[in-house]
Amino acid sequence: MERDTHFILGVYDDEDVLLHAVEKVRSSGVKIHEVYSPYPVHGLEHVLGYKRSKLPIAAFLFGMLGTSLALTMQFYMMKFDWPMIIGGKDYAAFPDFVPVSFEMTVLLAAFGMVGVFLITSNLKPWAQPRIFDLRSTDDKHIMAIDIASNSSLEQEKIKEILSASGATEVNNKSFE
Amino acid sequence: MAHHGEHHYNLDQRFDFTASIKKSILTVLVIGAVLLGIGIVMAMTGGHHEEGAAAGGHAFHWYERLYASLWVNNVFFTGISIIGVFFFAIQFAAQAGWSAPILRVMLSLGNWLPIAGVLMLATFFVANHDLFHWTHSYLFDKNDPQYDKIIDGKGAFFFWPMEKGTFPVFYIARMVIFFGFWVFFFTKFKQISAQEDQLGGSTHWYKMRSWSAFFLVFFAVSSSMSAWDWVMSIDTHWFSTLFGWYVFASWFVSGLSAITLIVLFLKGKGYLEMVNENHVHDLGKFVFGFSIFWTYLWFSQFLLIYYANIPEETVYFVERLESDIYGPFVFVNLGLNFFLPFLVLMTRDAKRHGVFLKLVCTILIVGHWIDFTLMVQPGTLGHNGGIGLLEVGMFLVYGSAATFVVLNALAKRNLIAKNHPMLQESYNHHI
């Protein structure tokens, strides 16, 4: 997939200004590519209109997978592969299997969730992150507007909207 | 939302305990009383199991079932009541801000405590031998053929400083001290909260935090010991080291469910408009989480006993699982108190919307009442137990009476602690 390379960046000093700016910019019809901030800004994903993450569903499915794997493994081992009498109980004694099944559920849910998160967030080790503005790791919030996906609007118009929304600087940024 | 604007809520609102609400509660009370009456008559006329007497045990009397039912409800509703005070104190000890508008709902549950204490003492003196095997004096008489070495070894815990088998001074003293201090702390919290309404400022909050810390230390010990006294001592030979926590967990889930139900009820009537789905979500998370905590304790107790397979320990589960009467209820207990809340409340939406929470919380209160019935009945009634009209009727009578007392007290004061320093934080609570 070809990535877009030309962006307009709005630089914001204050998170409260940023939150209102996001609402204003979106309501004037500008599509926001992404907002970068040095720390998590409470409510930002809400004003950006992000849908809720589907990660819990992945966690649930991986958890279920863990439970089934653990139960299958224990039943197979204890009932068919190498039956042993432990504590005078049946070969397939369900209560004995509960702790292992619980642990496997937690393990697979956790690993599965982390794995899915890394993949969906494009956090593979060889990924080349694009840095829009280094100051977003320090003290500035950066709002990136993709020019290609806002082709119906003049660039000057977008810059005006950003300035009016409280951006302290408005810059262009192009990637190779 | 991060709009930290000004909020203008009516902080002087009072719950109007209208005649129609009173009427519905009294209707439930009357239905309960009628069921109870029919249940008593049925127990008196039929269902005599004479084989017990023939086998050398004591003959079964219908009123034992009444006493056991009284005891189950005494313990259960005392639990819900003290959990209200406990959860209130937790909010201050943890310096929680989200819960500020619903603090008085929690505290109001404590109004049942004085009544519960009197009922508990009265039931103990009336039921005595019929509920508690250890009250028989022959158990402690070395010359008696029914002398019981194990119970004799535990006797001092009930009878000290008196002679074993006489008057259970230590036991009664504990009951009185626990209820006494619980009511004392509850009254103290109410007083400080009322002063805060008058005077404002943050000093009352600090005062409340200190008193909460003292209460929590006292409650940590007293909740566990009351579980041994009121529930575990029924099966006098048997003991479980985590029983105190197990009873506490059951109380806690029921208490949280009661708090959630009252909050949702008040919201439905148009009160507490600052309590939005974020606060409800938090309550839902507590109910969900502590249902799992209860299951964890249930299973921890079961697995160790099952695995070690020592007869004096397994007897507790043999009595329940192998019984035609109690066996099915063991699984009903797990189904209602674990699988149902676990599956229904797992998603975020279910915890934020009142419909699911109302359903689950109601079921949980019934479920944990069944849990207490399962703890008390096998040791007191044996194969004469069960959940019939008598038990259901008694539950409805106690439930409606406690609800009446709690709502009545809630209506007497402002619904919201209007000068609580964390109200603003609570308005902006967002998860």
Biggest beta-sheet profile of chain A: 4 strands, antiparallel
Write down how many β-strands of chain B occur, each being a DSSP E stretch of 2 or more residues: 0
Q: What is the largest interface, and how many residues per chain? A: A-B, 16 and 13 residues
* Low-confidence parts of chain B: 50-56
SSE succession of chain A: EHEHHHEHE
Radius of gyration of chain B: 23 Å
Shape of chain A: elongated
Based on helices, strands and strand pairing, what is the structural class of chain A? alpha+beta
Give the number of helices of chain B.
Answer: 17
Largest sheet of chain B: none
Helices of chain A, by number, come to 5
**Low-confidence parts of chain A:** none
Query: How are the strands ordered across the major sheet of chain A?
Result: 2-3-1-4
Instruction: Report mean pLDDT of chain A, rounded to a whole number.
Output: 92
> Which range best describes the helical content of chain A: under 10%, 10-25%, 25-40%, 40-55%, 55-70% or over 70%?
40-55%
Shape of chain B: globular
Fraction of residues in H or I helices of chain B? 55-70%
Distance between the termini of chain B: 9 Å
How many structural domains in the coordinates of chain B?
2
Strand content of chain B: under 5%
Order of helices and strands of chain B: HHHHHHHHHHHHHHHHH
